[in-house]
Amino acid sequence: SIETPDKANAMLQAGFNLQMQDNDPDYAAMLMGNYILGGGALKSRLADRIRQKEGLSYGVGSRFQASSQDKAGTWTAFAIFNPTNTAKVEAALMEEIQKALKDGFNAEELQSARTSWLQGQAQSRAQDRELAGKLAGNLNIGRTLAFQADLEQKVSALTLDQVNAALRKYLDPARISIVKAGDFAKAAAK
User: Fold this and answer.
1) Alpha carbons 34 and 16: distance in angstroms, whole number
2) Under 8 Å between Cβ of 76 and 17
3) CB environment 122-144: b (16+ within 10 A), e (fewer)
4) What is the tens place of the pLDDT at every residue in 54-91?
5) Which of 76, 131, 134, 139 is the one with CA 20 to 30 A from 146?
6) Is the whole-model pTM more than 0.90?
């Protein structure tokens, strides 16, 4: 916990490192698991609970990344909130993670996430800057857009069991470190 006096908002960052590369057999499933949990911007488990339902956060989400060159992945989550809501935001974040691990996701969530993610990939390729960046990055690691096409096929073919299994295999709440910054002293004084 880091005191930042006179700041109106507080920030929470949570995360941990995991052993995964973007060509790992579980990569596509973990990508979709994270997308459902918090990667889908305003339509995700974390956003639905913490922002929409409970109104505790101005912005909340999660991110999953895996290196294209090393078994070096990260899972992170964030929330921006009023410092008076710190305990509630942290508790809701951990509860939603535990719920996802215990109960898994449902078919509707997977289909919605898959459709949204695939549309985002197509839109990204339609932008010259994004496409040029992807091509340049692929040159550096000896790939073509065939790698991206293969990933999109894997995402399209994912089963709900694969997504739930990957999330349970890699998302470990005991390994999550949480850092909060805000004017907690002022919030406690209220």
Assistant:
1) 13
2) no
3) eeeeeeeeeeeebeeebeeeebe
4) 999 999 999 999 999 999 999 999 999 999 999 999 99
5) 76
6) yes
